[in-house]
């Protein structure tokens, strides 16, 4: 690849790129002749276009668009405004605020029954989750976007989503998967002559080859991308990404002077556009570049700048979340006050009507009064039921958070207080804290998505689950808690690798509740065995302890709500009576069986059976 050729092609678009497109300038000159909707569309387009040149002007036109759309009830224009706000906040690193705007865009698109905008909204939300390093949610929203676009026969539109899926896998260093999606997107863009996205595909393919250590393969696609860059009149963000890639290429090929030249060009654009995500990337590249070059003073300075900016972005994100929550709270208070005034207005209107009716007919008044009392009684019962459901949900969430939080607290205290802990043990404890926190967060996200109070009403995510790995992780996570009571926690696996299609989060909660109960009711010095076995039809988990056992009359109602046993926890722990009820509810939901075998004074065995029909 001829380096001078690449250099000229790369800088050429800088001299071509300038201001507003001629079409927009022409429309703006005739602004006084446009209808309100046409003006709103113009302001939205100016909002989007100026984001790359002049943020203040962009926000000014965005405000005009929002005011005009709200005044005229132009919902399609409002949807475009919401999307542009999402783009703006995403580019400056306000990811939480960007999600709020993109979700408003999604709601409006669904209200308008606009599948193209709905698919775009899912795609944009996925991009934000990708930037937040949330791989599972990013892939989930990208898949929704693909489904919508394919359902409506929009093959041309799916290339951007395929490319974004490739971006997720490249961050996971899953090179083959990322190339698979990039090449699929490339075929579609070549088919429909979409040069802008084809350029993005070629650039991304080059980046994969650079990162996996194949610069020769990258040099095949870089000139092709350079030719397209010169044709598509890219925006600043695209130019920044292009310079960044060339800097990375020359860095990997040990051409440090050329890498520094491109990195400097990228930084100039980044600082003008305030692209925080890209600035983080360029700081890291500078630190690596100067480190390889032997200039450790500059390498340290850029590494420090990288850490400061990363912390700043995180703090800004937290501040924005707090501000959004406060604003949301204030709006709810205002809505409640307005609703109260409306109710008062309606109440006085009803009283006036009732007085008029009373003057006309006493019989009619009595009949209406009876109907009103009946309606109020029904509403009161509904409100009481909703309040009971809310309280029960809070109790269930609190119960299932108590055990993991106790483990996190205990392990953090060990790390802080015990100076004899080896680095290997510290790493093991931190991995357990990370896994436990992740499980707790996933559980909270599921509970927050509920529309009803019943724990089994949320949407299941059925996927292949490796039962042996799951059991290993549970033993690893609960061993420190068992050691605190001098309890031996063992595992016994009587089958080979085996996966079953089920909901991983549900199965985790079931096992966590049963293991936590076993530790709670086993005497210090006792022993708990976790068995994984199978019979002809089922794969079976057994949690066996040598605790006090369970009386026969207690076993009949063991899995009912608020059931508190006569046996007391052996370490002074609390017992709410919700744990086994949650176990049974979750087991029913995923089609599993749960049962107990126990004799007073001989310990207890709890079993979870999963049908082999789901075996993979």
Keywords:
616 residues, alpha+beta, Heat Shock Protein 90, 22 helices, 72% helix, disordered N terminus
- The gyration radius over C-alpha positions equals 31 Å
Helical stretch count?
22
Q: Helical content, roughly?
A: over 70%
User: How are the strands ordered across the major sheet?
Assistant: 2-4-5-7-6
CATH superfamily of the domain at 447-614: Histidine kinase-like ATPase, C-terminal domain
Mean pLDDT: 78
| Structural class determined from secondary elements | alpha+beta
| CATH architecture assignment name of the domain at 447-614 | 2-Layer Sandwich
Number of strands: 7
| CATH-defined topology of the domain at 447-614 | Heat Shock Protein 90
């Amino acid at each position: 690849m001829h380096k001078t050729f690449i250099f000229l092609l790369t800088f050429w678009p800088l001299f071509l790129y300038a201001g507003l497109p001629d079409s927009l300038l022409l429309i703006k000159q005739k602004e006084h002749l446009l209808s309100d909707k046409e003006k709103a569309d113009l302001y939205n387009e100016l909002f989007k276009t100026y984001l790359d040149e002049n943020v203040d002007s962009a926000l000014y036109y965005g405000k005009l668009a929002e005011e005009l759309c709200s005044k005229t009830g132009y919902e399609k224009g409002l949807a475009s405004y919401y999307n542009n706000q999402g783009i703006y906040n995403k580019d400056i690193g306000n990811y939480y605020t960007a999600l709020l705007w993109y979700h408003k865009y999604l709601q409006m698109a669904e209200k308008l029954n606009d599948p193209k905008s709905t698919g775009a909204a899912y795609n944009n939300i996925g991009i934000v989750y990708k930037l937040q390093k949330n791989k599972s949610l990013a892939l989930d929203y990208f898949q929704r976007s693909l489904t919508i676009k394919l359902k409506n026969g929009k093959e041309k539109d799916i290339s951007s989503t395929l490319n974004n899926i490739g971006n997720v896998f490249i961050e996971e260093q899953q090179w083959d998967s990322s190339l698979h999606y990039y090449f699929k997107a490339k075929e579609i863009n070549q088919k429909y002559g979409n040069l802008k996205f084809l350029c993005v595909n070629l650039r991304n393919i080059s980046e994969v080859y650079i990162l996996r250590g194949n610069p020769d393969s990258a040099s095949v696609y870089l000139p092709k991308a350079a030719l397209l860059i010169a044709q598509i009149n890219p925006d600043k963000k695209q130019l920044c990404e292009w310079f960044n890639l060339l800097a990375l290429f020359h860095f990997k090929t040990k051409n440090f002077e050329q890498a520094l030249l491109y990195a400097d060009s990228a930084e100039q654009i980044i600082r003008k556009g305030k692209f925080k995500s890209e600035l983080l990337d360029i700081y890291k590249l500078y630190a690596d570049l100067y480190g390889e070059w032997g200039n450790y003073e500059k390498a340290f300075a850029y590494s420090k700048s990288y850490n400061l900016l990363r912390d700043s972005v995180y703090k800004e994100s937290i501040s924005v979340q707090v501000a959004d929550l406060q604003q949301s709270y204030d709006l709810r208070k205002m809505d409640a006050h307005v609703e109260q005034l409306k109710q008062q207005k309606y109440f006085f209107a009803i009283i006036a009507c009732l007085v008029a009716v009373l003057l006309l007919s006493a019989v009619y008044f009595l009949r209406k009064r009876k109907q009103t009392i009946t309606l109020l009684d029904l509403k009161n019962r509904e409100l009481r039921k909703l309040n009971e459901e809310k309280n029960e949900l809070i109790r269930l969430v609190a119960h299932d958070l108590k055990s993991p939080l106790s483990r996190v607290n205990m392990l953090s205290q060990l790390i802080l207080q015990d100076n004899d802990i080896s680095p290997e043990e510290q790493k093991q404890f931190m991995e357990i804290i990370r896994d436990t926190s992740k499980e707790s967060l996933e559980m909270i996200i599921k509970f927050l998505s509920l529309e009803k109070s019943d724990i089994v009403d949320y949407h299941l995510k059925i996927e292949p689950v490796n039962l042996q790995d799951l059991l290993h992780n549970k033993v690893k996570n609960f061993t420190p808690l068992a050691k605190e009571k001098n309890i031996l926690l063992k595992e016994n696996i009587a089958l080979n690798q085996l996966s079953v299609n089920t909901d991983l989060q549900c199965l985790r909660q079931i096992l966590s509740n049963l293991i936590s109960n076993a530790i709670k009711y086993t005497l210090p010095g006792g022993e708990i065995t976790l068995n994984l076995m199978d019979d002809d039809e089922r794969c079976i988990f057994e949690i066996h302890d040598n605790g006090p056992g369970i009386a026969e009359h207690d076993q009949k109602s063991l899995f009912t709500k608020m059931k508190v046993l006569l046996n007391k926890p052996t370490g002074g722990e609390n017992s709410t009576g919700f744990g086994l009820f949650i176990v049974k509810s979750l087991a029913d939901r995923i089609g599993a069986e749960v049962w107990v075998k126990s004799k007073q004074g001989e310990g207890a065995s709890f079993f979870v059976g999963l049908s082999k029909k789901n075996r993979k």
